[in-house]
Structures are given as C-alpha cells and as structure tokens.
Amino acid sequence: MPKPAYDRVLLKLSGESLLGKRSYGIDFPTTQAIAQEIKDVQSRGVQVAIMIGGGNIFRGVRGTAEGVERVSADQMGLLATVMNGIALQDALEKAGVMTRHVSAVEIRAIAEPFIRRRVLRHLEKGRVIIFSAGLGSPYFTTDTAAALRALEIKAGAILKATKVDGIYSADPLKNPQAKRFHRIRYIEVLKKGLEVMDATAISLCKENKLPIVVFSLKKRGNILRAVLGEDIGTTVY
Ligand code: UDP
Question: Whose CA is nearest to atom 13 of ligand 1?
Fold first, then answer.
C-alpha cells in the first residue's frame, strides 16, 4: 500500500461541497459519502482536521448585497458553518469515526472551544476535528481560517477540495487550450489573481511555506488520492 504523503492534514471543505444536486442547504447522502472518504483517509493513520465553510446556506456578501450590515451578515455566515459542522459530525460518527466539533464562536452545547493543545491531543488519539465558525470574527473567510488553523496544528498541507481538478491557465470550461498546472508558486497565484483561496489565506501559506493541494471532490476517492500525494490536482508551493 502506498504511504501517505502527510501525517496530518487540514481539509478545507466549502459549504458547497455538501450541496450535492441541491441549490441550497445540506444534502445528507452527499455528506455521508464525504464522511466515508474521510474515514478512508483516517484509517490510513493520517490525522485529519476539517475546516467547514457555510456557502451552501449563507455567505456574508449575500447579506451585505441586500442591505444587512457586514458584521451581522458575517455572523450569520459563521452560524451556517456551525450547522454544516453538526451535519458532518453526524455523518462521520455514523460511519464509525470519532470526532470533535470545535467552534471558534462559543456555542457550548454543540461544540468545544478552540484550545490548541487539546485539539492536538484529539488528533493524536485519532479523532477527526471539525472546525466551524471560521476564526469567529467577521471580515474573514473559512479559507483564511483553514490556513491559520493548519499552521497552528502543524498540518503538512491544506487540502482544498473544489469543483475543478486544480488550477488552470484559463477557465477550462470556456477555453479548450487551458492547461492545468501541476505545481504553481504562491506568488503566481497572487499575481495572476487565480481564484484558489483568498489573498489573505494564500499570503499566510506563502509566508509559512504551507503547501496547498487543490483538487476536485467530484471524483470519489480523491481525498485519499490527494493525501497519498497522487498528481490529481495542483499543488501551490
Ligand atoms: N465568516 C466569517 N469569518 C470567518 C469565516 C467565515 O465572518 O472567519 C463568514 C463569512 O460571512 C462567510 C461565511 O462565514 O461568507 C461562510 O464562510 P465561507 O464563505 O468561507 O464558506 P465557503 O465558501 O467555504 O462555503
């Protein structure tokens, strides 16, 4: 069996990854399928922490576009991620994976607060960590939260699950000449304004040399492939 490329990873799942064929909310069979993939990774002895987004339910920008004050809108976005965190935790536990839900906003009846050493101990014991509520502050995204938490827990990489199988020189849906980068430098991503993660997240990774593996979640088994270091997407380095 091939050896995993990382001992510990931070998997960034957007809220959209839980949509399945829906246009809003949580598709439970899809969530369960993702949980199964995470179980496959964890059973290889890889420690997994997940940062869950909230875009399938609510994004701050949507609220502000409709006249809601930014801070309030972002707080709604934060709570959307908590709801996704509960769904993901349920699916993982049903798959037989021990988990801990860690929210950056105190919500005691549902999730633990973020205490770094405690989270590390959970990971060492093989529990999958679900981080929700991003960083708990408005004006951030769950991508930036993923980068910060990945650094704090010393993850070997951020696995950024998306709808496309990596970063392309142009939009592959519009331009058949578009080429997928196997590897690309942080600075290129920033200069070209490539939509991988927001600039704050990329800068944080760049300064701390934390690789980002961008891959598609659409193909079953890709989370494990990414952990095994297979060339299925684009590595930002
Ligand atoms: N959010 C926030 N602070 C954070 C992380 C998220 O205010 O640290 C809010 C923000 O409004 C964002 C929403 O939560 O739009 C959902 O997160 P995000 O858009 O990153 O989710 P994703 O795109 O990954 O589904």
Answer: 77
